[in-house]
Amino acid sequence: MNEPRCGRQTWQFQQDIRLLGSAVAVGPLEGDGPLAAEFDHIHDNMYAGQKSWEKAERHLMCQAVETAIEKSNLLQSEIDIVLAGDLLNQTISSNFTASKLNIPLLGMFGACSTSMETLSVGAALVDAGYAHYVVAACSSHNCTAEKQFRYPTAYGGQKPEYAQWTVTGAGAGVVGKDGSGPRITHATIGKVVDMGIKDPFDMGTAMVPAAVDTMSTHFRDTGRVPHDYDLIVTGDLGKIGYAIFKDEMKELAYDMSPVYNDCGLMIYRPDQAVFSGGSGCASSAVVTYSYIMNQLRAGTLTRVLVCATGALFSPVSYQQGESIPCIAHAVAFEAVKEE
Amino acid sequence: MNEPRCGRQTWQFQQDIRLLGSAVAVGPLEGDGPLAAEFDHIHDNMYAGQKSWEKAERHLMCQAVETAIEKSNLLQSEIDIVLAGDLLNQTISSNFTASKLNIPLLGMFGACSTSMETLSVGAALVDAGYAHYVVAACSSHNCTAEKQFRYPTAYGGQKPEYAQWTVTGAGAGVVGKDGSGPRITHATIGKVVDMGIKDPFDMGTAMVPAAVDTMSTHFRDTGRVPHDYDLIVTGDLGKIGYAIFKDEMKELAYDMSPVYNDCGLMIYRPDQAVFSGGSGCASSAVVTYSYIMNQLRAGTLTRVLVCATGALFSPVSYQQGESIPCIAHAVAFEAVKEE
Question: What is the ipTM of this complex?
Answer without folding.
Answer: 0.97
